Amino acid sequence: MRHAIALVILIATLPTWVFTQTSNYTQYVNPFIGTERMGHTYPGATVPFGAVQLSPDTDEQPHNIGGKYNPETYRYCAGYKYEDKEIVGFSHTHFSGTGHSDLGDFLIMPTVGELQLEPGKKGDPKSGFRSAFSHATEAAEPDYYKVRLDDENILAEMTTTTRVGFHQYSFGQGGDAHVVLDLMHGIYSYEGKNVWTYVRVVNDHTVVGFRQTNGWARTRTVYFAMEFSRQFEHYGFKEFAKQDYRGFWRKFDQYKDFPEMAGKQLRAYFDFGKLNAGDKVQVKFALSPVSTDGAMANLRSEIRDWDFERVRREGKQAWERELSRVGVTFDGRDDMTSFYTAMYHAMLSPTVYMDTDGRYKGIDQNVHSSVAQNRREGLSFTNYTTFSLWDTFRALHPLMNLIEPARNRDFVRSMMAHHDQSPEHMLPIWSHYGNENWCMIGYHSASVIADAIVTGNLTGAEAGAALDKMVETAHTGYYDGIAWYQKLGYVPEDKNSTSVSKTLEYAYDDWAIAQAARKLGRSAVYNEFSKRSENWRNLWDPSVRFMRPKDSSGNFLPKFDPLKTEGQGFIEGNAWNYSLFVPHDPEGLAEAHGGKMKFAARLDELFTMHLPDSFFAETEDITRDGIIGGYIHGNEPAHHVAYLYDWTDEPWKTQSRVRGILRQQYRAAPDGLGGNDDCGQMSAWYVFSSLGFYPVAPASGRFMLGSPSIKKAVLRLENGRRFTVETLNQSEKNVYVSRVTLDGRDLDRRYITYSEIMAGGSLAFYMSDKHL
Amino acid sequence: MRHAIALVILIATLPTWVFTQTSNYTQYVNPFIGTERMGHTYPGATVPFGAVQLSPDTDEQPHNIGGKYNPETYRYCAGYKYEDKEIVGFSHTHFSGTGHSDLGDFLIMPTVGELQLEPGKKGDPKSGFRSAFSHATEAAEPDYYKVRLDDENILAEMTTTTRVGFHQYSFGQGGDAHVVLDLMHGIYSYEGKNVWTYVRVVNDHTVVGFRQTNGWARTRTVYFAMEFSRQFEHYGFKEFAKQDYRGFWRKFDQYKDFPEMAGKQLRAYFDFGKLNAGDKVQVKFALSPVSTDGAMANLRSEIRDWDFERVRREGKQAWERELSRVGVTFDGRDDMTSFYTAMYHAMLSPTVYMDTDGRYKGIDQNVHSSVAQNRREGLSFTNYTTFSLWDTFRALHPLMNLIEPARNRDFVRSMMAHHDQSPEHMLPIWSHYGNENWCMIGYHSASVIADAIVTGNLTGAEAGAALDKMVETAHTGYYDGIAWYQKLGYVPEDKNSTSVSKTLEYAYDDWAIAQAARKLGRSAVYNEFSKRSENWRNLWDPSVRFMRPKDSSGNFLPKFDPLKTEGQGFIEGNAWNYSLFVPHDPEGLAEAHGGKMKFAARLDELFTMHLPDSFFAETEDITRDGIIGGYIHGNEPAHHVAYLYDWTDEPWKTQSRVRGILRQQYRAAPDGLGGNDDCGQMSAWYVFSSLGFYPVAPASGRFMLGSPSIKKAVLRLENGRRFTVETLNQSEKNVYVSRVTLDGRDLDRRYITYSEIMAGGSLAFYMSDKHL
User: Fold this and answer.
1) What contacts A551, CB < 8 A, 6 or more positions away?
2) DSSP code, position B635
3) pLDDT in the model for residue A737
4) Angle between the N-to-C axes of helices B651-665 and B596-608, in degrees from 0 to 180, rounded to the nearest 10
5) Which residues does chain A have within 8 Å of residue B235's beta carbon, measured at their own beta carbons?
6) Positive or negative CA dihedral for B698, B701, B705, B711?
7) Which of A98, A224, A260 to mutate to test the interface with B (most CBs of B within 10 A)?
8) Is there a contact between B479 and A252 if contact means CB atoms under 8 Å apart?
9) Rounded CA gap, B517 and B524, in Å?
10) Across the interface, which of B246, B252, B437 has its CB nearest the CB of A247?
11) What phi and psi values does residue B525 have, to the nearest 5 degrees?
């Protein structure tokens, strides 16, 4: 470890160009971080924003058992739990860090000996195709995962391209070799989730098919094409649920060496005969949102040969390119690991959702083409999916808008296409795989798009059209109390629950729309939405200094417990945390509290309060992890709160709180994340805060200053410029900022702007163990 | 009636060009023929080979009741039973004349008053949206159907274009008007048949969606786009089966005025508010095999306005053009009606299965384009579906090959595309809607394609490729005993049931392949399949003069009942009928019988035997309808049998039998068909036999002479020539042919050839009441 630190220090002193050439940031990524406890990350292989996330699943947990919700399901959101001892197989789609899932498509498992077509029971690997494994023979790095399947004595390795998973199974002992393709397997599964699956055997080494599910996404189909490096000698299917009636297929033995099968609960197997010790079976497994033909074309265009090591190397290079957008140094390797793993986690989603020819399935269930759109509208874009916007509008998208503005623009274009295809004529709320799942609240696409417009990354007719879509979304009366919100200025709890959270988030999103409108000179929109952005005031109860739910007659509901969430007008956050969600007007919020001092005292109270034990029993996804006093970092609503001291006379408390959160909530270990990573939002918080600034109100064009934990950082911007952040007198204890300079001149404010960063230059923090 | 007959006689004496201009053949079509008892035809509106068959359904009969097959289902194959008193609605897809179904997609029903979302109980129209109706206010003609819905006092009218159904509902009384769209309704439905349905409300008069089913077709999706002539004021959905879990849609009231819904059991409704008496609601309803976008494009390109009468007129003109390909005269209007209704029924399917842009879904579930294929292979074709080949290879396709060779060539091209997309690499057996349903036996695509090749309608590289596909199909070992057939020369009953029927049909199909190979100079294929075509001999038992099942050791099965079908080695026909199925070698068969006389005596025995009552109880779809002695005309295996006397010294018995069948098995009345029309096969038999010749062995290039029932006929051939058939001394009694001339010269054989017909000219039959 000492050696590694020395290397880091050496690199940090080299000129920047050397840094770029030799840095090898991928060495610091540890994909196991977050795989234990709350992080809900997966350790498997994927390229940046890749459509395939090829990762081990250690258990299958049904969503319901006997009609009741099974809380174990939640733990398995990413398919893999570090504490598990067995692997059931390797599936191709995983969300990173979510508190819900829908994926785990197409589980592959190699076996030796007698064919087994059931996954078997946890703790009893002999009961099915599951295998014991140990962390001692497991390794994960960007776009590469390996593990030894102990029961089968098979070394499983995997890497990917954007749309193709590449498996390599090396058989440690001879015997009858099989590969199982499980089309039933899924994360968050239950009876009836598989609407339909279809498999077609094209020839003795090629298979295609699809899986159609009704889950979080209501009408979702994923197509695949799969190629083996060896010819299989036999293959077959087993149906685990009888279909009532299906034509005259009974004239065949459909279950053995017959080239097509369809149904709701299927597993397929492929027999390779007797292999010798050392023999390999490789599998290329391509996905498509469009068709099996699309999947086959993706497979052929992305991996033409069987060179596993080249694909692995190219995947690593792709990660190296992405990670090098922000070059940092810390004094410790663990911090380097935390930082680059955060960068890695921030670059897993949104994921590419189109074939190599630009075609994708829209939420209208029609196939669209980004190429056609290009010709018609002068646009070309990569279509993405998996927009966990309630989480990611906060820091993930602002980070992308800063270090990957071109990609973020394509995120925005994907969101605009979603709107155009949306039956509700709305921008995405939480969308995945050609579906809107309506998870969580607000219309935070508005924040992401407004940020892109305000910062000049989305311009012209496209920006105007985007503004129209934001306005249309914000006028959708039947969505989550908007009709009431428009009528009363708040969502009334008796008409629409979690009304306070909704009102506060609408007010912020409305402000974001107003900022975009101002930038585009659309004064009517600006006026309307500036007015709406004040709506947070309508639920402010000065008597208790909390936001509180009102009924439709305008009265606060009498029963009120600011520690509770359920039934109190909030969702995934209590009044203590949510009442501070006025990111666009902290000054106004401070005034409402009775001034800066009272506001700071309230923040102090939040961070230092002692929560009763009963608190932790309340909700499924809040544990002691992620909590500091009453401040909940493990969930998103308060992610900006540590920065609110910047609007008081005690900005040093932002500095110490931020450093405290960085230290306490993120560790370079499997259990190192204090909450769900939520598609990179938790990680993006880490990246920004480590650098010393954070987007409290995206679309403001400002980043509030905190306390950087890095020694030095360079942002290699897409416009070719570089923005550096230096700390002087940095240490674990020196968390206070005594002076900040921008390009050598003292900065007399508590923020820097987007344009200052994009202009390139140098930001220096003078660190101290004492606050001013 | 006398007046009509006079008119016919008048027309018959006019020169041919006048005939073409003024004939008005559509007047003779009665779509009700076959709607009662066994015909299984539908009375609704459709254009020739149209993709939409918009027709009333008089009941819904589930395929299973309490896990047991419900025989009532069979009666409702076409959705409509003439004897019923109520209509449940109008759906858009119907097979004509089948003994099975899978369709009835998208039932529409207009109602007045209180909204009802259940079809209700038969006999109790008040119990649901069903309505009483009477034949007195009902009318059907080519591409037009109307009926008064008595309970609702609504006049329902419908017409179609190829891909669009056009409804016109005239409200006879004021009141709250609704239109119900039932996505659950179907013909041959059962729990679990609807895999998924999806609806999207595009605007206040436009709706799109799809229905995905698992039935006769395993993976079938039909897309629609629907436009109303009036804006609806409200709309909504009702789910009749709860989904376990479906994202966060619960945040909406999805059931009222919310623009999308998906699930397994849905009905939608559209409220038009209070309409006045006389107000109309029109609906244009387009189908697509590809997507809702495809359906919308079909709608827009086929009907641009709301001119119902123009669409109706154009549909009628399209029928007039098709029917005028064969101009005939009879002495009676009933015969005219029977003939043109047979022509009409012969031109209902195969149906167009592609969007106006040439795209369609193949059986590989990918979207293909006939246009792309055009560019690549120099081909352009219209893709068709609904190939009931076990039925239609006999007479329907030979009729098409004669009077519509271009269309028949596109049928062949559709079959070839099917092969290319088939996981089994087989030509279609019985295919519909992008699926192979594997119904019945044989590989009769080979007969259809060979007929096209032998007659010179499919040539060059295309013919060569088609031959390869036939050969590949006939070599598919896992299909219905083919591996055994190849090994033993017959299908052994202990290995594969209905083995005699399969062996006989394979042998015929093999002969057809050999004929195509000979035409194309492919001698190896010719030799192989000529040899295979002799395989019927392997199951001939000279001791009883029947075909009999053998086991795989080469022994005839000891138990044998030539009257029975079930378990005797046959399907849909007993040994009495099936043993005569050697259409390619009647001479050989006669020899096997011990010569022409014994063969003729066996035929006599068949036509005159007395069947025991127990016979009629045996199978569901054979009743006393369609039976003459032991000859079963109501099913297909013996359709050629009446013509077999042509290979004996008693051809006059062919003449009298054919006339007897024409008279007994076809009547111009709803109950006028003696068996399932089977996608036009029964009707094509009628057309050929009325003209005086029949294709006993398609791909022979020969039509065997029978006894024409027409007075005069003109075939207006696609090559611009005309072939006329005249009868002299024609009457009901004069069924015997004493002399035949071709272009004035005596014909000294019992057949005419395809090329003789295509060359134009004149065939004259001299009729007599005495045989030679």
Assistant:
1) A492, A493, A494, A557
2) S
3) 98
4) 20
5) none
6) positive
7) A260
8) yes
9) 8
10) B437
11) -65, -40
Tokens 């030979």 label which residue?
Answer: B398
Which residue in the block uniquely carries the two structure tokens 């591996």?
A: B483
The rounded distance, in Å, linking the Cα atoms of A358 and B695 is 52
B17 CB burial (10 A radius; 0-12, 13-18, 19+): exposed
Q: Which amino acid is at B223?
A: Y
Least confident segment among A377-381, B287-291, B544-548: A377-381
> Minimal Cα distance from A101: which residue of B?
B247
Q: Chain B residues with CB inside 8 Å of A63's CB?
A: 245
pLDDT per residue as tens digits for the range B71-102:
889 999 999 999 999 999 999 999 999 999 99
Contact A515, A530 (CB under 8 A): no
Residue type (1 letter), A755: S
Of A605, A663, A603, nearest to A638 by C-alpha is: A603
pLDDT reported for residue B624: 64
Judge: A244–B196 Cβ closer than 8 Å, yes or no.
no
Interior/surface letters B572-602, b for 16+ CB within 10 angstroms, e for the rest: bbbbbbbbbbbbbbbebbbebbeebeebbbb
CA distance, residue A463 to nearest chain B CA (Å) = 25
- pLDDT of B8 > 50? The answer is no
At CA A619, angle to CA A617 and CA A625, rounded to 5? 75
| Opening angle at CA B299, ends A378 and B212, nearest 5 | 95
> Do A411 and A680 meet the contact criterion of CB atoms below 8 Å apart?
no
Contact list, A219 vs chain B (CB under 8 Å): 196, 198, 262
Chain A closest CA to B259's CA: distance in Å?
6
Q: For residues B225 and B355, what is the distance between their CA atoms, to the nearest angstrom?
A: 12
Q: Convert B708-726 to b/e letters by CB count within 10 Å (16 or more is b).
A: bbbbbbbbbbeeeeebebb
Place of tokens 């009893």: A124
Query: Which residue in this structure is represented by tokens 């299973």?
Result: B64
| Residue of A193, A262, A423 with shortest CB distance to B201 | A423
Residue in A350, A388, A182 with CA at minimum distance from that of residue A265: A182
Q: Both tokens of residue B81?
A: 């039973």
The tokens of A521 are what? Answer: 């000179």
Outline where DSSP puts E strands in B650-755.
693-694, 702-705, 712-716, 722-728, 736-742, 745-746, 751-753
Shortest CB distance from A243 goes to which of B192, B248, B480? B192
Question: Locate tokens 């265009």: which residue?
Answer: A301
pTM of the model: 0.95
Cis before B398 (ω within 30): no
Spatial separation of the C-alpha atoms in residues A282 and B278, rounded to whole Å: 70
The answer to whether B151 and B131 have CB atoms below 8 angstroms apart is: yes
Judging contacts by C-beta atoms under 8 Å, the chain B residues touching residue A288 are none
Rounded to whole angstroms, the Cα distance separating B702 from B567 reads 35
pLDDT-derived band at A68 (thresholds 50, 70, 90) equals confident
Is the Cβ–Cβ distance between B365 and A294 less than 8 Å?
Answer: no
Within 8 A by CB and 6+ apart from A86, the residues are A58, A59, A122, A123, A125, A130, A131, A132, A133
User: In 10 A of CB B246, how many CB atoms?
Assistant: 21
pLDDT (tens digit per residue) in A231-283? 999 999 999 987 767 778 989 999 999 999 999 999 999 999 999 999 999 99
Q: pLDDT tens, A96-154?
A: 999 999 999 999 999 999 999 999 999 999 999 999 999 999 999 999 999 999 999 99
A389 neighbourhood in chain B, CB within 8 Å: none
CB contact under 8 A, A249 and B292: no
Q: What is the rounded CA–CA span in Å between residue A125 and residue A133?
A: 10
Of A195, A201, A249, the CB nearest to B438: A249
Q: Where are the alpha helices (DSSP H) in A475-536?
A: 482-488, 499-519, 523-532
